[in-house]
Description:
By secondary structure, the chain is an alpha/beta fold.
Amino acid sequence: MSWAVVTGAAGGIGTAISHRLAEEGRRLILVDMAPALAKVAADLETSTMVRAVQADLTTEGGIRAVHAEVLELGSLELVVNNAGITRDARLTNLSEENFDLVMDVNLGAPLRLVERLHPLMEAGAIVNISSRAYLGNFGQYNYSMSKGGLVGLTRAYALRLAPRIRVNAIAPGLIGTEMTKSIPAEVREKMVAAIPMQRMGAPEEVAALVSYLASATYITGEVITIGGGRSLSR
Ligand SMILES: NC(=O)c1ccc[n+]([C@@H]2O[C@H](COP(=O)([O-])OP(=O)(O)OC[C@H]3O[C@@H](n4cnc5c(N)ncnc54)[C@H](O)[C@@H]3O)[C@@H](O)[C@H]2O)c1
């Protein structure tokens, strides 16, 4: 059985993805900069083989640490680029620092990781966690740009790596995690009211889609939205 890399594994969606992949018997290399990663890895140790790499993916050292782990373990079949951040601000208040950071975590890191890891993959899949914000979210300039860039990366690499590796993106709508807890309650309620399914999505629902794309052998270069029907107009 070969290994899967999951980035942002200590976060809400990343933890759910890790549990789902473990249930399916995949061996996991979990990556996150947060110390909480150790607990996620410990919880999974009874169900599968797990390695934890605590690393900042915006640094060359962080990318090298993941690469070294994969080299040591051998066969890599799946990479899930899930680590991501928001630093929302009005365009006039958007600092260069927060623009660069969001672009670096959400777009630069997946690019560097894919570039470094794909030569180690005989076959398999890459799943990039974009966001429905790639369509352009009000007040989320740097985030929307980074997630749109990730769609471009997905499509360009899908062409480049076919037929050996399939590359797809997932565009979640509002999912219940720490990231969305930071949205003021009254704003969140309005956002939920606009969702035909009348609720936020669960991280486990995104994880199920990752699992599907990991083994969907004739899908590549696609962006799949999981947003409770938000793409519909009333
Ligand atoms: N929650 C949502 O509603 C939602 C919607 C659409 C897309 N997404 C995307 O889903 C992904 C996961 O989001 P989440 O809601 O689970 O967020 P989260 O904040 O719970 O988890 C993100 C994880 O990424 C890690 N991380 C951040 N910067 C890193 C770095 N430089 N190096 C290594 N790890 C780093 C964090 O430590 C954290 O554990 C993100 O890419 C996010 O943009 C989330």
